[in-house]
Amino acid sequence: MGSHKAAEQIRVALQRRTILGHVISGVSDRTALIDYVSDSRSTVYRALDELVENGLLTEQHGNYTPTSLGSLIYNEVTNLHENTDSLNQAEPLLDAINTDLLDIRLFSDASVCIPSRYSPDQPLRALSTHVDNSTKIKVLSPTLPSQFLSSMTTHLYDVMSELIVESEAISMHQSDLTTPQQTHPLIHATDVYTTDSQIPFGLFISNSPKQEVCVVVYNRGRLCGTIRNTTQCAYQWAKNAYQSYKKKSDSLSETTLEDAISTDTSVN
Question: pLDDT tens digit string along 218-229?
Fold first, then answer.
C-alpha cells in the first residue's frame, strides 16, 4: 500500500512538475498560476487538486503552499528529468562502455559531446578545452592517442599532472614516446603510472581552477565521445574511480622507460 502511494506521488509530481515548480518558487495563487503555463484554467485547477490529494501541496482560500514532501519529491523528479535528458544525449556512447561502472549522477547537469557529420572531431576539441583550461589535472587513460600526447605536451609545464595508463599502451606507443618532443616532457613534468588492469574509459579530473570531470569514451581505440560534469557528486565518483586504479599501478620512472627502450632496441 505504502509503495503504491509513493509511486502515485512520483507519477503526479512528474506529470504536474511545471505547476508544482511554480508553486515552490512562490506563485501561490491559483488564478496567477494560469499566466505561467499554457494550460487551460480547468487543467490548472485539476492539476492543483491532484497535487493536494497526493500530499504535495496544501490549499487555503485558493492559495497553495508546497509540503515538505512535495518539495523533496519535486527535487528528485527534476533530477530524474535532467538525468533522462542527458542519458538520451549520451545513448550513442553507452554501447561502448560498461554502464555498471558509471554513477547515474554523472549524467546530472552533464555536457555530452559526440561527433557529428559536420564536426567529427568535436569530442577531441571538448577534451582539449578541458586540458587547456586546467592548472591541475589527473588522467586515467587506456590508450595514448597522438592528439592526447600533443595536447598534454603543449601544456605540461603549466599543469600539475598525473597520468595512469595501461602498460600495453606504453608498449604500443613506445616509438612515439621516445621522440624528444614527447618523451622528456611526459616523464619530467608528469607523474606516470602504469597498470596491467584493463581501463574501460578515459577520465580527466581537474580541481583547479574549478572541479571538473571529463569521461572519455573509446570504441576500439577511437575517441567517440565525452561526458563533462562539474557537480560535486561527479567529482567525488571520479576521484574514487581514479584512486582504485592508482592502487593497482606502478610508477613509471625515466630509468624504467629507458631500460625498456634499450631492451626493445637490442631485440630489434
Answer: 887 778 889 999
pTM score, two decimals? 0.65
Residue type (1 letter), 91: E
Cβ–Cβ < 8 Å for 146, 216: no
| Rounded-to-integer distance, Cα 249 and Cα 268, Å | 28
184-196 pLDDT per residue, tens: 455 555 788 989 9
Residue type, 64: Y
Q: Which DSSP string do the residues of the chain spell out, in sequence order?
A: -HHHHHHHHHHHHHHTHHHHHHHHTT--BHHHHGGGSSS-HHHHHHHHHHHHHTTSEEEETTEEEE-HHHHHHHHHHHHHHHHHHHHHHHHHHHTTS-GGGS-GGGGTT-EEE---SS-TTHHHHHHHHHHHT-SEEEEEESS--HHHHHHHHHHGGGSEEEEEEEHHHHHHTHHHHTSHHHHHHHHHHEEEEEESSPP-SEEEEEEESS-EEEEEEEETTEEEEEEEE-SHHHHHHHHHHHHHHHTTEEE--HHHHHHHHHHHHHH-
In terms of residues, how long is the chain?
Answer: 268
Residue that is written with C-alpha cell 598534454 in the block: 152
> What domains appear along the chain, each with residue ranges and CATH number?
2-75 (1.10.10.10), 95-267 (3.30.870.10)
Q: Cell numbers for 22, please give them.
A: 511554480
